[in-house]
What we know:
Blueprint: H1 4-9, E1 12-13, E2 19-21, H2 23-59, E3 62-64, E4 67-69, H3 75-82, E5 87-100, E6 103-116, E7 123-130, E8 133-142
Antiparallel strand pairs: 1-2, 3-4, 5-6, 6-7, 7-8
Amino acid sequence: xxxAQQHRAGAVTGLAGNSVLTASRASAIRSGMRRLLLLAALVxxxxxxxxxxxxxxxxxxxxxxxxxxxxxxxxxxxxxRCGEPSFRDFSTExxxxxxxxxxxxxxxxxxxxxxxxxxxxxFVRYLKFRDGRLVRISEGSYGY
Length: 144
């Protein structure tokens, strides 16, 4: 049975007559549960939004606006999607291919390295093209 004092305090009593849960304690528990639920929702949304970025980084891709550039693409495709790079560097490499046992064929291959510096809020990206095909995307520090 509740006494008038327990009723005014909003207490629920147990069999022994001890106060088990007050209204203020129940309100605090509900508030804590709401915070926990909100935190779980934020973690879910953040992981959903960041998952494509993690997958993109693992593949060595680069996002240009709403388009993705990845290995194997030609220079003209990358230029069309990402625009003019901040800097271009040109060099050559010699590649040796064994055509038959003891017979090698050497070829000079053009190398281009494009630098995309998109400002201080994004990392600088370096794109390496070998013989006109994108072979590597690497990331530097924040831009300027």
